[in-house]
Amino acid sequence: VTAAAPADGYTITAINTSVLRLPFMTRTSYDPRRDFTYIIGISSLTSGLVVRADAPWKSFAEFLNDARANPGAISIGGPSGGTNPQIVMRQIAKQKGIEWTQIPYRSVAESSNALLGGHIAAVADAAGWAPYVNSGQFRLLVIFGSARTKSWPDVPSLNEFGIEVAATSDYGLAGPKGLEPQVVRTLHDAFKEGMHQPAFVSLLAALEQEPIYRDTNDYAAYVRNQIEAQRRIVDELGLKSD
């Protein structure tokens, strides 16, 4: 809708990594390289790998070692369809020479229930599992991304294990192509100010998102890099459907 809207500043959309990846997987009505004006980067959705608190793995290193020693034996629940958590686990397996079994679930609530019931060994997904981690029922082994989070500062990120992935869920805002620079500045400044409002900060915390501000130029550069990264991921993992 946004890609085809008038370039008047009244129609904008949230952009995440999946939006940038999808055109390389299947036919879409938009091309992220030419159909949007990128305005501002705002946040990153926290995702990670969790196991039950009584699981034998006390760390991500132990989890990797066990998976390496027992190819295909560890079952990991999560979303399917070329989503970020699924791709992260495939990238880890490829980089580390590991095999595990990924089980698709329709929601993180469904996969979390399966983990609670002992039907799977772990869940790799966005932080819908947070209440179980905070209550002590799940153990968070690793954060998908390049940095630790404020919510769980003691939990390492993938980068600390020498694992680099390009499927984190960073969010930003974009409008149709051809937005006037003054319109872009006005929108950028308004949303930047809004990022400091207590209601927005509280909302991000409730959604387990970390604020990540990128100005217009930085966000456009980030998107360009991500588009190329997503193209490589689709090629490397064979995700193209047509």
Query: What is the level-2 CATH architecture name of the largest domain?
Result: 3-Layer(aba) Sandwich
Q: So, the CATH homologous superfamily of the largest domain? A: Periplasmic binding protein-like II
Largest sheet: 5 strands, mixed
Number of domains: 2
Number of strands: 9
Q: What structural class do the secondary elements suggest?
A: alpha+beta
> What share of the residues lie within helices?
25-40%
N-C termini distance: 23 Å
Fold and architecture overview:
The model has no long low-confidence stretch (mean pLDDT 94). The protein folds into 2 domains: 2-45 and 173-237, Bordetella uptake gene, domain 1 (D-Maltodextrin-Binding Protein, domain 2, 3-Layer(aba) Sandwich), CATH 3.40.190; 47-161, Periplasmic binding protein-like II (D-Maltodextrin-Binding Protein, domain 2, 3-Layer(aba) Sandwich), CATH 3.40.190.10. With 242 residues, it is an alpha+beta fold. It has helices spanning 17-25, 60-69, 84-96, 108-116, 130-134, 181-194, 198-206, 216-237, and strands at 13-15, 36-45, 47-52, 75-78, 101-104, 122-126, 138-143, 169-176, 209-214. Strand 4 (75-78), helix 3 (84-96) and strand 5 (101-104) form a beta-alpha-beta unit. The strands form 2 sheets. It has a 5-stranded mixed β-sheet with strand order 5-4-6-3-7. A 4-stranded antiparallel β-sheet has the order 1-8-2-9. Helix 1 (17-25) crosses helix 8 (216-237). It is globular.
